[in-house]
Amino acid sequence: MTTKLLVNIFIRSLFIHSFLNFPRMQNLGFCFSLLPVLKQLHPAPEEEIAFLKRHLQLFNTHPYLSGAIIGSVVREELRTGGREGETAERQKNTFMAPYAAMGDPLFGGALKPFCSTVSVLLVFMGFAFAPVVYLLLFNPIHLWIRVKGFLVGLREGNGAFRYIAALNLPRLTAVIRSMALAVMGLLAAYVLFSFGADLKLRFPENIALSLAGLLTVLLSYRLIKAGIPQTALFYGYALLMLLGSWFLC
Questions:
Q1: What distance in Å separates the CA atoms of residue 157 and residue 71, rounded to the nearest whole number?
Q2: Radius of gyration (Cα) for the chain, nearest Å?
Q3: pLDDT in tens, 156-184
Q4: How far apart are CA 80 and CA 215, in angstroms?
């Protein structure tokens, strides 16, 4: 197991979601990541066919947590010389669903909204490098989890699950969501005060707009807690604004 081989596999794993397809989801990306292993093993033709078949089966997890599974499977395939795939298949099928269930709320439901809101706030404040701030906030977290998960999977196999469990991703998701809501409140207050200053609104009108923004944030929080999707809220508010602007005009 050379460093060049491992780097090649990990870099390929970064593109696992690029091969997404509806019949078998990320199977092409997963198999693409493991091709360097197949080239190193040089198995017999029938074993090579079996290797490709088992890694072209359905695979679907959160791409940022796939590194731990890929590392575990690489370890197992190298250990057996690519001749016994039952353990590798069991590892994939066991962990892909739990990792997806933990990764989707964290990265899609918490971290991306938080980074986006911070960047939008910076845009309103006049910072030209807001997109760079987004990348600096978002990328280190998921890259660290991908690299560390991959290395732990290589070293410990199924033990990579202990690393993922130790991250306590549900707790981290709740913390980042709370931070995102706080930044959204700051963004709403900043936009409302700036809007009021530009229109030279009087003090009571400015306060009324600020209270309306605060109530909107609190209402959104309650609706999200009640199970209303954030996407539905976004499009619902956009529709209300369009209707409001139409009636006002």
A1: 7
A2: 24
A3: 877 778 888 888 888 888 888 888 878 88
A4: 60
Residue with tokens 């410990």: 156
Q: How many residues does the chain have?
A: 249
- Using CA atoms, how far residue 202 sits from 49, 63, 68, in Å, is 75, 51, 57
* Burial classification of residue 206, based on how many CB atoms lie within 10 Å of its CB (0-12 exposed, 13-18 middle, 19 or more buried): middle
* Per-residue three-class SS string for the chain: CCHHHHHHHHHHHCCHHHHCECCCECHHHHHHHHHHHHHHHCCCHHHHHHHHHHHCCCECCCHHHHHHHHHHHHHHHHHHCCCCCHHHHHHHHHHHHHHHHHHHHHHHHHHHHHHHHHHHHHHHCCCCCHHHHHHHHHHHHHHHHHHHHHHHHHHHHHHHHHHHHHCCHHHHHHHHHHHHHHHHHHHHHHHHHHHHHHCCCCHHHHHHHHHHHHHHHHHHHHHHHCCCCHHHHHHHHHHHHHHHHHHHC
- Judge whether residue 134 has pLDDT over 80: yes
Distance between CA 90 and CA 145 in Å, rounded?
22
Asked whether the beta carbons of 121 and 186 are under 8 A apart, the reply is: yes
State the pTM of this model. 0.74
Q: Which of 73, 30, 62, 87 is nearest to 173 (CA)?
A: 62
